Description:
The longest helix is centred in the middle third of the chain and has 14 residues, at 46-59. Helix 1 packs parallel to helix 2 (78-91). Strands 1-4-5-6 form a 4-stranded parallel beta sheet. A two-stranded antiparallel sheet has the order 2-3. The N and C termini lie far apart (31 Å). The protein contains 5 helices and 6 strands; from the N terminus they run βββαβαβααβα. The model has no long low-confidence stretch (mean pLDDT 88). By secondary structure, the protein is α/β, with parallel strands linked by helices.
Amino acid sequence: MRYxxxxxxPPSEAGSLILQATIxxxxxxxxxxxxxxxxxxxxxPASELEEDLTAARRYYRYVxxxxxxxxxxxxxxxxxxxxILRIIRRLFPExxxxxxxxxxxxxxxxxxxxxxxxxxxxxxxxxxxGESGNQEVxxxxxx
Length: 143
């Protein structure tokens, strides 16, 4: 597995295989988060991720969960995200769940059909932080 910089994951993903699907965070300007300040955002190509997953398959006999890192991998275009989930399913048929972090805007940008397709291919949890409904607060924290 190739990783760029520090990798963060929720405590509940401690036993998960971590796949760095994006480098950094597509937003990366929220005042309350310094996790990805040292990384220039980019989406890793599916072919590169497949190489990492193939290497992981040789090392791990059983992978129950996969966590897509970095900041908000749900910003990846749906077709590419579906391709990544298909690769995971093919290489790790025992995988019960894939998870990731997302910004509310990235969830809202997906259609119901896209979200359903992601779920059908194993996306089981999308972690999101609490959001304010107050635009003044959102502006203040650059969200």
